[in-house]
Design a protein that fits this description.
By secondary structure, the chain is an alpha+beta fold. Helices cover 47% and strands 23% of the residues.
């Protein structure tokens, strides 16, 4: 039996393909990050504010900070996955609403306005009630979704046009 040997020369195409694949990964990371920042800016603009902690955590995330209150993580597993938002413990209650039980709040009334004072002996009892959610994340997403997809499509089209 005789052997038949065949050698295939890719003329450097494999190396060029790998380089383009790396460029695509970098481009997806850039586009994903910009899209996440734009969305978080929109969420931050509509986030309800009482003491500023929730909004500040979203603002920190929108600058790419992964900190105590903010979340901004990028995972590269078969593409790019961005996880972003807030670690503020009451964020879910503000977003989705919650039920408050009867509870005592220390403080005092001054000029028809209640002032919270944690060390005060007096105060008031709050009756049980349902607090409706603000749905600021969900509403921001609905207003952003088509803009974000248009941005991603334009950026990817420009990238692929450059490659050709």
């Amino acid at each position: 039996m005789s052997d038949f040997k065949f050698e295939l020369n890719d003329n450097g195409m494999f190396d060029r393909f790998n380089a383009q694949r790396e460029q695509l990964d970098e481009e997806l990371e850039r586009i994903g990050t910009l899209t996440a920042f734009a969305f978080l800016h929109r969420v931050t603009a509509v986030a309800p504010v009482m003491d500023g902690r929730l909004r500040n955590s979203l603002a920190a995330a929108s600058s790419g900070t992964d900190g105590e209150d903010s979340i901004f993580k990028m995972q590269k597993i078969r593409g790019i996955k961005l996880v972003f938002g807030t670690n503020v413990e009451y964020a879910d209650w503000v977003e989705n609403g919650h039920r408050q039980s009867r509870r005592f709040v220390p403080g005092e009334w001054k000029n028809d306005k209640f002032e919270y004072r944690p060390d005060h002996d007096g105060g008031m009892w709050l009756r049980p009630m349902t607090v409706m959610g603000k749905h600021f994340f969900k509403n921001a997403w609905h207003s952003f979704e088509s803009d974000g997809q248009d941005f991603i499509n334009r950026e990817l089209e420009a990238f692929f046009n450059e490659l050709l």
